[in-house]
Amino acid sequence: MSKKKAPDPFPVPPNVRLYMLKQHLEGEPWRVQNRLEWLHDPKRTVGVFLRADKLYIVTESQAESGVWLHEGPVSVLTATCSDDELAPVVREHLARSRGNLNVDTRQTNNALPHAAGVKSWSAFQRSAYAVSICRQKSLTITPYRREKGHCDFVPASTGEIVRPLDRTDAELCRAIRDGLEIAKRES
Fold first, then answer.
1. Could you tell me the CA-to-CA distances from 169 to 53, 80, 86, 142, 150 in Å, in that order?
2. How far is CA 149 from CA 4, 112, 126, 132, 142, in A?
3. Residue 91 to residues 33, 94, 97, 125, 131: CA-CA distances in angstroms?
4. Which one, of 38, 43, 10, lies nearest residue 136 by Cα?
């Protein structure tokens, strides 16, 4: 009589299992833990950028290497748009966010600068303010400030705005706008 095997609480595809085992054997068990957490409760992330009285909303997805990339189409709204316009777009982009992308991270996606009508990321970044919205166990809005002398954003010193997942659209939009105000003050 054979024993029945208990169902796997984290159904992981075989190729991912082998990749996780390889990382564990190479001394990177934290990557395995992060991957298991992601499979159980995926981290979904969206970038919201304010530039020249327009909001640019883009999906951020994670490559297998752990790098976060802008992916898919960019939604463009006016900065004065209503909460009824902004919240559904942000929630749609959160739903599109994915992990374990098998992509070449050296290839850049220039959809965001092109949507703004500029040629490069550095030209876009010079006059933009940014927040990142992460949905995992809660909604975390992280304001970013422009890094002087670099073409990148770094988290603002003020910290994150954390809200429960079940917040209304108005509360979500208020937190996004508050985060953008913090980004403006610190840039």
1. 21, 15, 8, 18, 34
2. 61, 21, 10, 21, 21
3. 27, 5, 10, 24, 15
4. 43
Number of other residues whose CB lies within 10 A of the CB of residue 73:
12
- DSSP letters along 75-141, please? EEEETT--HHHHHHHHHHHHHH--S-B---TTS---HHHHHHT-SSHHHHHHT-EEEEEEESSSEEE
Q: What's the CA gap between 156 and 167, in Å, rounded?
A: 23
Contact 161, 178 (CB under 8 A): yes
pLDDT tens digits along 14-73: 555 555 555 555 655 545 555 555 555 567 889 999 999 999 999 988 777 777 888 888
Given a contact cutoff of 8 angstroms between Cβ atoms, the answer to whether 93 and 55 are in contact is no
**Cα–Cα distance measured from residue 56 to residue 49, given in angstroms and rounded to the nearest whole number:** 5
Whole-prediction pTM: 0.75
Residues 5-37 as b or e (16 or more Cβ within 10 Å = b): eeeeeeeeeeeeeebbeebeeeeeeebeebbee
- Token output for 180: 């953008």
Residue 155 to residue 54: CA distance in whole angstroms: 21
To the nearest 10 degrees (0 to 180), the angle between helices 83-96 and 169-186 is 90
